[in-house]
Design brief:
447 residues, mainly alpha, 73% helix
C-alpha cells in the first residue's frame, strides 16, 4: 500500500510538471507571437524596408513603362524556365543543387515580378535569429556556415511568391511520377542483393533482413522519409478528376507502400500508417474498412522483416533506439553549456566528439530539434517553431494538394524527433521547397 501511494504521488508530481511545462510553452508561444508582431511593425517602419519598397516601386514602374518588352520576355522565357525548374527538381535526389534551383526561381521572379504581398516575417525572423546566434557563438566565420539554410529559406520565400498555384500542382504531379524512377532503383537493390552497410541492422536481424533499400539517397531512413512525401501526394492523386492520373497515382501508391517496407525504417512505417489513418479517417468508420485494416495488420504481422524490426524495440539488448536515447541525453548535457546562442552552425561533430560511441563517431544528433538548439540556441529553435506554426496554419481545413503538401511537411517535422534529416544534402532543401509550395498553394496567385 505505501508503495502504491508513493507511486500515486510520483504520478501526481509528474502531472503537475507536465501542466506547468505546457503552461510555460503556451506563454512562450504568446510571447514570441507578440515579439514577431512587434518585429514586423519595426521592420515595416525601418529605413531598410522603406528603401526596399522604393526600389520595388521603381522596378514595378519600369516594368509597367516597358510592358511590351516584359510580356515578350515572359512569353519566350517563362515556360522554358518552368520546364528547367521541373527537370531540376525531378533529378534533385542525384544532383542536390539547390543553389541552381534558387537561381532559376529568381530568374522566374524577375520575369514575372509578382505583385507585392505582405512580407512573410516568419522566415526572416528565423534567419536573423540564426545569424545572430552564429555571430555570438563563432563570430563572422559562423555566417559562412549558414549557406545551406540561407539557400533553403530564400528558396521557400521566393518560390512561395513566384510559383502560381497551377504550376505548383503541376510540379507536384511531376514529383509524384519521377518518384517511380527512384523506387525502381530501390527494387533493383533488393533484386541484386546490394550489401547492407554495418550499423543499419541490429544484432541478429541479418538472418531475416538481407537488404535495406536506400535507392540514391544513401540512407534507408532518408529514403523512407522521401517516400512518405510521395505517399502524401499519391493520397491526393487517387481522387483527381483526370482518370489516367488517378490510375497512375494508384500505381505509385502501391509501389510506394512496397518500397517503404523494403526500407525497414520503423519511423517511416509508423508515420506512413498514421498518415494513411489521417487521410482516410472518414472512410474508416465503415465495417468494410475495418475489415481491410484488420487484414492489413494481420499481413504485416506475418512478414518476418516487420516482426524482427518492431520486436527489437522491446529487446533488452543494445539497439539503435537505445543508442539514440543516449545521444539525446548527452546533447541535453551539452546544451546547458550554451543554451542561449548555441555552439555555432555545423558544430555538432566538434562539440560531441568528447562522448564515446560504441559504433564509431556520431555524425549528427538523430533529433533535429535538439541539434538545432545545440548549434543555434533557443532563440533559433523558437523562431523555427514560429515558421512551423505559420506554415501549418489551417492544416485540418485544407483540401487537395494543399492538404497533401501540409501532410508531407508534418511527416518531416514528426520524423525530426528521431532523425536529423536537416544535415542531408537533399532533405534539407526538399523541406524548404515543400514550405514554398505550401505557401504558393495557399495564396492561389494567378499568372
Amino acid at each position: 500500500m505505501p508503495m502504491r501511494v508513493g507511486k500515486w504521488f510520483e504520478l501526481t508530481g509528474t502531472s503537475e510538471t507536465v501542466t506547468r511545462l505546457s503552461t510555460f510553452v503556451k506563454f512562450l508561444g504568446k510571447f514570441f507571437e507578440s515579439a514577431g508582431e512587434c518585429f514586423e511593425k519595426l521592420w515595416i517602419s525601418s529605413r531598410i524596408f522603406k528603401i526596399t519598397v522604393m526600389i520595388g516601386s521603381r522596378l514595378e514602374r519600369f516594368r509597367r513603362n516597358n510592358a511590351v518588352l516584359w510580356k515578350t520576355l515572359e512569353r519566350r522565357w517563362a515556360a522554358i524556365i518552368e520546364a528547367a525548374i521541373i527537370l531540376l527538381i525531378a533529378l534533385m535526389p542525384v544532383l542536390n543543387s539547390w543553389e541552381a534551383l534558387l537561381i532559376l526561381t529568381l530568374f522566374l521572379y524577375a520575369i514575372r515580378f509578382p505583385a507585392r504581398q505582405r512580407p512573410d516575417t516568419g522566415l526572416l525572423i528565423f534567419w536573423i535569429s540564426m545569424a545572430l546566434s552564429a555571430l555570438m557563438a563563432m563570430g563572422a566565420p559562423g555566417l559562412s556556415r549558414m549557406l545551406p539554410v540561407t539557400v533553403g529559406l530564400s528558396l521557400a520565400g521566393v518560390a512561395g511568391r513566384t510559383f502560381s498555384a497551377a504550376f505548383s500542382r503541376k510540379l507536384i504531379r511531376f514529383m509524384l511520377m519521377t518518384g517511380l524512377l527512384w523506387m525502381i532503383i530501390g527494387f533493383w537493390q533488393q533484386w541484386t542483393g546490394v550489401p547492407t552497410p554495418p550499423g543499419w541492422l541490429e544484432r541478429g536481424q541479418a538472418w531475416t533482413i538481407s537488404v535495406r533499400s536506400y535507392s540514391v539517397f544513401g540512407n534507408p531512413n532518408i529514403y523512407g522519409l522521401y517516400l512518405l512525401s510521395i505517399l502524401s501526394f499519391a493520397f491526393d492523386g487517387i481522387s483527381a478528376d483526370n482518370y489516367f492520373f488517378r490510375i497512375m497515382s494508384g500505381l505509385v501508391l502501391i509501389l510506394t507502400v512496397i518500397s517503404l517496407y523494403f526500407t525497414y525504417s520503423r519511423t517511416a512505417w509508423l508515420l506512413g500508417m498514421a498518415a494513411a489513418f489521417y487521410w482516410f479517417q472518414k472512410r474508416i468508420k465503415s465495417g468494410k474498412s475495418l475489415v481491410y485494416l484488420g487484414a492489413g495488420a494481420l499481413l504485416l504481422s506475418l512478414l518476418p522483416g516487420f516482426r524482427t524490426r518492431m520486436a527489437a524495440l522491446a529487446s533488452p539488448l543494445e539497439n539503435t533506439f537505445r543508442l539514440r536515447v543516449r545521444i539525446w541525453r548527452n546533447i541535453l548535457r551539452l546544451i546547458t553549456g550554451s543554451w542561449l546562442w548555441g555552439f555555432g552552425p555545423g558544430s555538432f561533430i566538434e562539440v560531441y566528439r568528447h562522448f564515446p560511441a560504441g559504433t564509431g563517431p556520431v555524425q549528427h544528433g538523430h533529433q533535429l530539434y535538439l541539434q538545432l538548439w545545440l548549434e543555434n540556441g533557443v532563440l533559433s529553435l523558437t523562431a523555427f517553431g514560429g515558421v512551423i506554426v505559420k506554415s501549418l496554419a489551417g492544416f485540418f481545413g485544407n483540401r487537395g494538394s494543399v492538404k497533401a503538401t501540409a501532410l508531407a511537411i508534418l511527416l518531416f517535422l514528426t520524423a525530426a524527433f528521431s532523425e536529423t534529416w536537416w544535415v542531408h544534402p537533399f532533405c534539407g532543401g526538399y523541406f524548404w521547397l515543400l514550405i514554398g509550395l505550401r505557401y504558393s498553394l495557399k495564396t492561389e496567385r494567378k499568372d
